[in-house]
Amino acid sequence: MRTSIGPNNMSVLLILLAAIILASCNEGKPNGNNNGGEADYPMPSPEEQAAIDLWDTLHTIEGQTLNGAQLAVMKSKVIDMDHLLCINLPVSDIDERPLGDVTYTNEETGGTIVFHLGPVEDDEVVDSLNPIGTIDLWTVVHSWETKDCLPDSANTFNRVQARGNSIYTPYHMVHSGRKKKNNYELRWFPEYYGCIIYVYPGADSLAMTFGYEESKRIYKR
């Protein structure tokens, strides 16, 4: 299935515009930036900035190649700014796979995660990341969000990258095009959801984080 980049891309809107979309669910609303009394632009809170930083990091060349052990302990590179990006997941010596077609549920929010393991068939897509399958995510992002903030339906990401050390990152393959002489050439690259998932030994539970400690939630089968 061919997927293109556009202003309606769900993962970009979910992460980069969280301050606006989720304002009704945010008890600690971001501060505004009043420009001479003419406009009030919401500024990201530290938590929202952490989610943005993780999303941005995953889309760098370095972020796309970090292994599970590196992602699990990743922190902000800015001194004294660990609160903006701190993953703090276990570093496992084993590489546990999630269970396929099993519903993992977060008791607090009612959110669910379902992996569908197996080959991802799409002859049009050029993908060298060797996905282990697809994933359905019906989840919230931020620590202050409740069941009322869950989306109307699950978001299906048609790729899951195994990073090693029981760490996984969901993504889509998207493309941009460029003219090359008389041909239109597609350039494929991953677009990540912006979360990191850890599978506990035995695969009975998962931990998912969006970049800061309070966003970490446990999902159990």
For this entry, give a set of tags:
single chain; 221 residues; alpha+beta; six-stranded antiparallel beta sheet; four-stranded antiparallel beta sheet; 5 helices; 12 strands; 30% strand; disordered N terminus
Structure description:
- With 221 residues, the chain is an alpha+beta fold.
- Helices cover 15% and strands 30% of the residues.
- It is built from 5 helices and 12 strands.
- The chain has helices spanning 10-16, 18-21, 46-58, 61-65, 68-72, and strands spanning 32-34, 40-42, 103-105, 112-117, 133-138, 155-157, 159-164, 167-180, 183-192, 196-199, 205-209, 217-220.
- Strands 7, 8, 9, 10, 11 and 12 form a 6-stranded antiparallel β-sheet that branches. Strands 3-4-5-6 form a 4-stranded antiparallel β-sheet, with no helix packed on it. The protein has a two-stranded antiparallel sheet with strand order 1-2.
- It is globular.
- The protein starts with 9 loop residues before the first helix and ends with a strand.
- Mean pLDDT is 83; it is low at 1-8, 16-24 and 28-35.
